[in-house]
Records
---
Amino acid sequence: ALQEPVAGFQKYKQFDDFYGYLEQEVEGTMVQDFLQHLLQSEIVNSGILEDLKTKGIREKKEPKDLRIKMELRHKQVKENRMKRQKELELLKQEKAMKKLAVSEAQKQLQEETMRKALKAKKEEAAIQKQMVILRKELGEKRHLMEEARKMERKRHNLKKIQTLIEVGLSPAELTYLNCDNEEQKEEQAKKQELLNKVNTADQKLWKREQFSEQNGGSNLKKPEKSEKTKCWLRCKPKNKNVKGKKQQKKRLN
């Protein structure tokens, strides 16, 4: 063993050649040491080895035929597609049912709103009709009450006139009492006052003419009475006891 290195050393006469030889020897020794180290060291742990073992067993159990794998894959894809299609169909049906329910609810709400509006309209029409009837009845009632009051006033006035006729009042006074309202009574009173003034003027003129006739001896005739005076004389009561009649009139009023 010792002779071989020595023999190898002696065959190199130049230093460079010998150095190259040593370099190769060193590299070879290093490679051998590294390989020996790898062989002696644990590259993978027990977990990795167990996984590799399990994978190998599973690969042995799985069928190696690719057609079976493709069929299984197609079957799984088909099942997934059918499942997804079924879910979409159910979702579509749910949406349709919800839409139908909303539409039905809106329809019922519209019908209820229309029914309430129609009912309110009928009630309003009935109320208006009843109000018209009540107004008509109220107007008729007022008219009847007014007619009854007029008849009562006329009856009262006729009774009063009859009583006054019995005591001998003039037609002018009876006409005044027979007036229905205050305006007519006031107008009649003004006419009576005017007639009284005309009568007073005629009386004064007649007395003056009589006085002139007595003093002058002339045969003057009594002046003609005016139409208003004649009317007043016709309406003047014939009974001389006028004072008693006035007192009777006051008692009646």
---
Amino acid sequence: MTLKTRLNILIAVTLAVAVAATITVLRMNQANMAGLASNDETVNQAVSNISGELYPSLQACNTAKLAVVQVQQWLQDISSTRGLDGLDDGFDEADKWAAIFHEQIAYLHEHQPEREAELDEMNRAFDEFYATGTLMAQAYVDRGPSGGNAMMDEFDLVAGNINDMAETMVAEIEGEFKDAIGAVTSNQDEISLRSQEILWASLGSIGLLSAVIVMLIMTLLSVIRPVSQLSSAAQAMSAGDFTQQISLRPRADEIGSMTRAFLEMKDSTAQMIRQVSAAAVAVSGSSQELLSGAEESSRSISEVEVSIRQVANGTNDTNQQLGDARQNMREAATAIEGVSRDIEGIVSFVSEAASQGESGRRQASEASRIISEAAGSVQGTMAIVNALGEKTKQIAGFITIITRIADQTNLLALNAAIEAARAGDAGRGFAVVAEEVRKLAEESNEAAGSITSLVTGIESEMQHVLEAISTSEQQVTEGAGAVDEASGRLSEIVNGVQVLSERVQSISAAAEEVYATTNEVVQVMESVSSLAVDNAAASEQVSHATQKQTESIRQISGNADNLAGLAGRLHELVNRFQV
């Protein structure tokens, strides 16, 4: 798989994963936030209904029930005492409690309009009960037990009727109260579940982004390390040092191809430099021999001919070697030019990777913002649950009042039973009523105890909900911190890629410099080759025309000087390189 393909796949996968994770988390959080808002509205409505309607209505109903008991108690009390001095306030107290009953029924008319018919029936039954009780008590006062006992059965009947109606209404409103409390508890559980879903979705997105970041870092390192080594080697070669070793694992991508081409170019260039150095030495030696031959030509033409042949042969060999070296240098220049093009491609890929890394960093910042909004919603939910806890404490206080009233009613029933026992047969019916009142007081006390247990359980559950929401808030905050850290790492990666781009551009510049130097060496070799051809032609002319010996010797001497100068220049160029 080529490096370009790998980088394109990695970038595409990074974008796809980041976009998919962001969209998924956004959709899940939007759905959960909508659910939380709906649950918050439901909880608020339920709390408003409990605190504004159900509980006050339940309290009013219980007060009305208590008023019935108090009216009955005071009428029976005046019946027992028969209006004696100091014990004649029963009618006033009964009238006061009757007014309280009507006030509570009026309140229920206002806040429980759906019970209008039932409340009207209770008003009618209470008026009948109160009128019958007043007549009975007045009969006891006016005519004694014989007058009052005649109306006892009728009074018991209407008293039982109004008490049953009050009990029924209390039970119905208590049922609605319990149902509302249950709805609040159910919505609190759903709020906790949705908060956990938001947390897990955020953590999953962070984990996925972390895995993608690790993959991106590993791939970039696989590009940066070999390019860095090649950059160091190219800088050394630009300084003339071809002895530096490069140790990289074999690869099948563009980096591997570039490394192999670079090593081949390095070896070819070093070999070429060694050949050029040897050729320069040979040319220098040949020029010295040529000069010596020119000096000895005056002594022996035959020696001149031999020397000229040697010079011609040496020149031909030198020309062949220079041709080979020139060809090698041209191949090296072509390879260097290919390396420069590959490096330009790498610069393009690295720039694209930097752009994609910056895009990933922006998306991580967006995920951090969404998680912060989720944390704010969790804090709002916690405030609502705290308010509900305060309302529950108020309910517990009201239940304590109901319990105290029930205890007082029980005590009054016991006192009434004692008074009935004192009255003998005449107070027997009153004793039965006192016993029923005592039972009702005990049942009220038990019901208050049950409600107290229920409220205590609700307070405990709300405490658990508060702890769960607090934990969710902390975890969402930690998730936001993790996303911020991931964004910081993406920024570091983008900076690293920019540094890599600068280094690769430096490599490209060094390669261009090597290419220019190689072309210069080729031009020098072409000049040397041209001179060698001229020397060979001159040597042939001397061999065929000995009569022009003097002129040829001068030409050879001049050419030898030029050749020595070129050999010295070539030697200086070669000495710039260490092979």
